[in-house]
Amino acid sequence: MSDGRRVTSADVAKEAGVSRATVSYVLNDVPHQKIPETTRQRVWEAAARLGYAPSAAARALRIGRSDIVLGLLPDWPIEHVLGRLIQQLTNAFAEHGLTFVVHSSAHPARPLREIWKAMTPAAVLALQEFADLEAEAMRAAGIQVVMAMHGSIRGESCPPLVSEHPIGALQARHLAEARHRRIGYAYPDLPGLDSLAQPRLDGVRKVCAELGLPEPAVRTVPLDAQGAAEAVREWLAAEPSVTGVCAFNDDVALALLAGLNHLGLRAPDDLAVIGVDDITYAALAQPPLTTVHRNTDVIARNMARRVVDSLEGRESPAEPVPDELVVHVREST
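^ that's the sequence the OP posted. Answer follows.
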């Protein structure tokens, strides 16, 4: 169209030489309509020529909800695994005809309530817990699904969609099987990551208790060589000394390797280190980093399925979504 106005279904009907009802049936893929394939093709070609985009508002009225799933990100660095998970969630929701839109709470982002009121999504998927009053307001506004990936909605008994506990347990078992009897835990120095770090630490603690090992020695490790070196010194000076460390993720583990190097030491001879996430740099580290690999594509597909099931009134399992974890053993342990 050259007059600057929005192309309508009436324009498509005129271009294709059919009724507006036929255009609606074809573009909305309405079942049980006996429309010849040649007519369908003509409608699609006319819509493409004119650049017709169906109204999202009209579609929402027709099906009773929008096709948007709003993803709420906490104030975390968007890199490595989180970036990959966002892409995989986008793809997984697209397979169900849903659009995944992400909003970060990092300052100075607009308040959450302004976002969901403006978008009126069908569902909200939060990576971290949020207030139950906010969840109640969303549901009162007609948002059918509100889920928390890590943690839960405060004031509700729903479990998290994804459990971090098995990651720490797997790390600790790997070190214990390598005959490490005193284990440390490298906690991240970003407070916003507590909802991930604490359950992983709990997993390490549980395995240590089961195996009769001392309580893990916890140190907060910054992402710089000197700060990490200080944590290494404290672990090695402990009585008995720590010989293997479970790091919160690969970034923290790489900082520990840098800290060891800063002290003229090396993993695993002086201190074994295992990370989480299997980022690209893990295999390139010196020495190459042992790490826990997580199949985030499986997680994304299962989370999308949980949301879709809830939207369609099907009951979802109470337990967390399946999580495929594998230790990629390299030289650091």
